[in-house]
Design goal:
The chain is mostly beta strands. It contains one helix and nine strands; from the N terminus they run E-E-H-E-E-E-E-E-E-E. Strands 1, 2, 3, 4, 5, 6 and 7 form a seven-stranded antiparallel sheet that branches. Strands 8-9 form a two-stranded antiparallel ribbon.
Length: about 150
């Protein structure tokens, strides 16, 4: 199950919950690599358990904004959380990063967040659930729908 470019990958399973620990290398795209991993491994209910690492390029969509924020520099990943639906094709992930002075910023993770030194990620997948996204009539956005298998 090791994909090209990953330095390490460990997986285990208990009570139908799988855990995958992986490390992304410098220059990799954080969101694209995670989504590709989920899709390639056909994870049906993946969520980000934890992530630490750093970015050299940050692109996020801040809360309730249409325009993306694009910053270059060195940023520590202090939080990464979210879900992958439809086997990685649809996701909702938030990230928080801090700069060298400790200032922190966060928002919706989009493509283009480039790893600086590492990203150490733990993903969980519950094989008894299936995550998908459907249009919510109240919010008009694609929202998570959880279905038991």
């Amino acid at each position: 199950m090791l994909l090209a470019g990953f330095i390490s990958l460990v997986s285990c399973q208990q009570n139908n919950v799988e855990m995958y620990a992986l490390r992304l290398k410098p220059g990799m795209d954080l969101k694209q690599e995670m989504a590709q991993f989920v899709e390639t491994n056909q994870l049906q209910s993946a969520s980000v358990s934890t992530c630490v690492g750093s970015l050299r390029e940050l692109i996020i969509r801040p809360a309730n904004q249409k325009e993306l924020l694009h910053l270059k520099g060195h940023y520590e990943i202090v939080s990464l959380t979210g879900t992958f639906a439809d086997h990685g094709k649809n996701n909702h992930i938030h990230i928080s990063v801090s700069d060298s002075t400790g200032n922190t910023i966060g928002g919706h993770l989009v493509d283009g967040n480039i790893i600086y030194t590492t990203a150490e990620i733990v993903l969980l997948n519950n094989k008894d659930l299936n995550f998908t996204r459907v249009v919510d009539p109240e919010t008009t956005f694609y929202e998570l729908e959880v279905v038991g298998n």
